[in-house]
Recover the amino acids of this structure.
């Protein structure tokens, strides 16, 4: 604006050293906008310009910035490499199983306990049916670890009976740090068949028990077993189907945390 109050067009500002700052390019407009829109920015800029020592330090920092960025990128690449090493080498799933095997389980969300453990003797039978006062122990083959979320059980009682209350169920973590490696460590409470099945035979999905406020994991060097005991007086258990639903992604995330990845 001129002294007469009329607007005049300007295309540059004097920089004080014989040069000028062009105001017709986007960079110049953006620089002016930042000064106007940030209270105190102009005062700070003047302070820096009037202090040769401070100005020189800022100039040196600006010169070192590209090298610092290169160093940061190098460190990030090293951290990423260490991350991959921890995940591939230290985490239990990768130690005990190849990546090819892990990939086979990457889209699975359930595991069935359908392997019968035989040769136990005593009250244990080697095959269905499970007669009164006898038990059967079911498990799964060795596989990468997983974190169960819920349990579904179907019991087929002889004669179409529905006395699910007669069947006691107990899960075990094998070996689970137990002195008796064959039996393992009991997991959760002892339950009854009627906690999993209504009288009409429809299933009730039961949440997987927690340990110290967090879901209990099945490690890659462990297996899950279920003992079903027939405490009834008359009916045989002709068959049972046990499904453990799990979140395999949660296991790998937990593994990364424990490895410090």
């Amino acid at each position: 604006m001129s002294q007469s109050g009329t607007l005049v067009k300007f295309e540059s500002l004097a920089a004080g050293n014989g040069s000028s700052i062009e105001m017709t390019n986007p960079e110049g407009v953006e620089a002016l906008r930042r000064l106007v829109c940030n209270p105190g920015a102009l005062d700070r800029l003047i302070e820096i310009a009037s202090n040769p020592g401070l100005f020189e330090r800022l100039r040196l920092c600006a010169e070192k910035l590209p090298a610092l960025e290169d160093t940061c990128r190098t460190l990030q690449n090293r951290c990423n490499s260490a991350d991959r090493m921890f995940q591939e080498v230290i985490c239990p799933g990768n130690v005990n199983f190849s990546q090819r095997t892990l990939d086979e389980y990457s889209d699975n969300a359930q595991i069935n306990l359908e392997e019968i453990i035989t040769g136990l003797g005593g009250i244990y039978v080697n095959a269905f049916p499970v007669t009164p006062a006898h038990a059967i122990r079911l498990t799964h083959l060795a596989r990468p670890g997983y974190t169960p979320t819920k349990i579904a059980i179907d019991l087929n009682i002889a004669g179409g009976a529905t006395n699910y209350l007669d069947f006691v169920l107990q899960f075990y973590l094998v070996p689970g740090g137990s002195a008796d490696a064959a039996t393992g460590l009991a997991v959760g409470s002892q339950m009854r068949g009627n906690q999993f099945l209504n009288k009409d035979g429809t299933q009730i999905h039961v949440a997987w028990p927690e340990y110290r406020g967090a879901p209990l994991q099945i490690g890659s060097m462990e297996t899950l077993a279920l003992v079903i005991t027939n405490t009834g007086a008359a009916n045989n258990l002709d068959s049972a189907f046990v499904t453990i639903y799990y979140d395999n992604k949660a296991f790998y995330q937990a593994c990364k945390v424990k490895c410090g990845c």
Observations:
- Residues 52-90 form the longest helix (39 residues).
- The mean pLDDT is 82.
- The two ends are 62 Å apart (CA to CA).
